What does this fold into?
Amino acid sequence: MHAKAEEDLFYPQLLALGTGEGGKASPEDETTDAIHDHNEIRDALADVEGHAPGSSGWWSAVAKVNEVNGDHMAEEEREGLTDFRRHASLDLRHNLAVAFYAYEAAHAGGIKSHDVDPEEYVKQNEDPAAGPGR
Ligand SMILES: [Fe+2]
Ligand SMILES: [Fe+2]
It folds into this structure.
């Protein structure tokens, strides 16, 4: 749900305002990498469900989720989130935070998640006025 909220609310705004940060040359690069990572996290989470809780396979699958999620969060903080903080107004940051909490509350029961093609996502969300979630 966190990744989907970011894809609906945050990354279209980053594509509009970002300039590249933390080693990435552009917001398109930051976003493509983030969507790829979100897919990895979704896939790793789905793998956990195939194992009996507490089994060695389950622990391995949980460790994989921890690894891919940790890698993603470190990169996202360094790249897209820093890029956005440096270029978005306080009002936009505030409004996005409120929208994020509203999204999480509206979907508290969970969502159906699916992988997203990173290049296709960037193409469809380059114009934040035309993308989803606004
Ligand atoms: Fe993310
Ligand atoms: Fe995140």
